[in-house]
Amino acid sequence: MTNSTASNSNVSSTLCAGIDWQRGQQLREQERATFLKNNPKSCALAERAGQHLLFGVPMHWMTDWSTPFSLTVNTANGATLSDADGHRYVDFCLGDTGAMFGHSPAPVAKALAKQASEGYTSMMASEDAVIVAEELARRFELPVWQFALSASDANRFVIRWIRAATGRSKILVFNGCYHGTVDDVFVDLVDGKPKQRDSLLGQVTDLTANTVVVEFNDLVALEKALAQEDVACVLAEPVMTNIGMVLPAPGYWEAARKIIQRYGTQLVIDETHTISSGPGGYAVLNGLKPDAIVLGKPIGGGVPCAVYGFTKELAQRVEQAKRHAPPGHSGVGTTLTANMLTMAAMRANLTEVMTDAAYQKMLALAGQLAVGLRAVIADNKLPWCVTQVGARTEFQFCSQPPINGSAAELILDSELEKIVHLFLLNRGILITPFHNMMLVCPQTTEDDIAHFLNVFNQCLRLLKSA
Length: 466
Fold this sequence. Notes:
Blueprint: H1 21-38, H2 40-52, E1 73-77, E2 80-83, E3 88-91, H3 106-116, H4 127-140, E4 144-148, H5 151-166, E5 170-174, E6 187-190, E7 193-196, E8 211-214, H6 219-226, E9 231-236, H7 252-262, E10 266-270, H8 281-286, E11 292-295, E12 306-310, H9 312-323, H10 340-353, H11 356-379, E13 385-389, E14 392-396, H12 405-410, H13 414-425, E15 429-430, E16 437-439, H14 446-463
Helix pairs in contact: 1-13, 3-10, 4-10, 5-9, 6-7, 11-14
């Protein structure tokens, strides 16, 4: 899941040039009425859910969709979903990367069915774990790996390991970042100072004591923050995705890598979203050479799991720290970590689903989508841009892609997003509820993209000023 740090429903007329807000409000009410009329079974299920589920949904962020009530999914296969009322949707959300390679990939489903009769979990090693680790080392060019059940846990474990290995307590993140539910990263830059996010519930310690935050693409700020030589690791997505996509400036990561090494800090790259770039992720494709990589939800074809890998040098330091620690629980890992069912899914997904051929198709389709989006936006004379990172594409409410988290936050417009998203949904198209991000999978077709662009164009024409 991706979620923004803030939402701005009162974007200035400069940013929303060309949008008729009276038309927008009318369209929103029309689309809400259409959704209510067309989804009686989902409505009834939502009313039942309200009796026994907190916030009326299995997880509270499911209320963040643009719909008046939660849509109930019935089946998901390939690039499509069906709901309780029998509607079919072309899915460009794909579980916000959890199903990046399509829903229920056949090799993964087959592996799960087989493993289901041979044991789910044993708290011991399996052959699949060896094969998965070998494949991870080949793809990501890091030799030593461990497992977790989510990217949140993997990030949490990596931070803990690196703090132990380096003897340093601080970490550095970028303003507006997303790394799951790791408490340490819920710090933003406000008026040039670190500030714990107001949205973080139940946190009783001061996160700013051990979390340093700077703007993405700011090399001067990065060097100043690391110069004290007390930062254990820089934890970063190579392309920011939480607050809308923010691309690295040309040469940024090459220079940043040198700064990070100069001060003895470890670089951890979170590829959970940017695995859309290619079979080895963004880091391998662009030669980043991190000290550690974290990768979550897409790696098991949608089955809850995550992995993290280290360089040989960092792995040796981590092992040494553990061996010299007192006996007892390290705070790393859970009983179900690397369970047999998950490992079987991961092996099948890595070896049979996340193939070079699959990526070639996905990247080509995403390229078509990006070109089409730019054409539709240009035809409607709107000052919006389109950003693409592999199979991930996003349109943003600004003429040029934002350069950092603060710039990205200024263009957020949850009200406009919800109008567009609901219009698409009512016509059989699903995109992420957060921002305007789309993914394609190997089962996405050119007709799916053409349908999306046609409906998107219809929406923009209705929203445009006369």
